[in-house]
Amino acid sequence: EVQLVQSEAEVRKPGESLRISCKASGYSFTTYWIGWVRQMPGKGLEWMGIINPSDSDTTYSPSFQGQVTISADKSITTAYLQWSSLKASDTAIYYCARKGQQFHQVDYWGQGTLVTVSS
Amino acid sequence: DIQMTQSPSSLSASVGDRVTITCRASQIITIYLNWYQQKPGKAPRLLIYAASSLQSGVPSRFSGSGSGTDFTLTISSLQPEDFATYFCQQSYITPYTFGQGTNLEIK
Predict the structure, then answer these.
(1) Looking at residue B98, what DSSP letter applies?
(2) Residue B42's CB: how many other CB atoms inside 10 A?
(3) pLDDT confidence tier of residue A4, bands split at 50, 70 and 90
């Protein structure tokens, strides 16, 4: 069974750093790209970027380029999303998402990680 | 980025109704269009991919159509569990942008 299990909710202060994780299981981790999607409170879905776990090739949405870093460790089948300096506006639920091979649909989603940034 | 515009933004309907949601892309995306359902507090769920292909396990009352720039999601006979928010997404070019969502409410 394919599963993407994300790390628990986090509370941080503005300016702090953070890394959240997405542990994949039930399939060949290096065969499917993993993306990250943001959902701000009460809002829609925003595509942040995507990584090929096989070679760590990464593409960012222009809106998120330079704001976050996406990485992956294929030895432990885990993808990451990290911030070096959080802002209050980073408060949101973040989902990891497995991209299908032929039509690039998201066929599996993580359960989401709530990140709260507040002083 | 490709802009995705859904309509309507919200919709009230009754159990048993036939409902259609539309999605328009700002440029041609052939059939690289997906539909997701999201319920409160839950991750989105894939319903339709490649414009009209039903994801495994999704009830056949859901269907999708369209190509190019204009697409539709149809629910043939609404069930109580279908009241949720629906998003379209283009997967033609990164970033794989989403529509703003359609909130389907019980009338």
Answers:
(1) B
(2) 12
(3) very high
Is any Cβ of chain A less than 8 angstroms from the Cβ of B99?
A: yes
Rounded Cα distance, A34 and A41, in Å: 23
Q: Is a pLDDT exceeding 90 seen at residue B107?
A: no
Whether residue A112 lies within 8 A of chain B, CB to CB, comes out as yes
- List the structure tokens of A60: 């960012």
Residue-wise pLDDT for A37-88, tens only, equals: 999 999 999 999 999 999 999 999 999 999 999 999 999 999 999 999 999 9
DSSP state of B36: E
Q: Is A65 on the interface with B (CB under 8 A)?
A: no
Closest-CA residue of A relative to B85 is A44
For residues B38-47, give the mean pLDDT. 98
Integer Cα distance of B82 and B77 in angstroms:
10
Edge to edge, what strands does the sheet with B102-106 contain?
B10-13, B102-106, B85-90, B33-38, B45-49, B53-54
Q: How many pairs of residues across A and B have Cβ atoms under 8 Å apart?
A: 70
When CB atoms are compared, the residue of A47, A102, A103 closest to B98 is A47
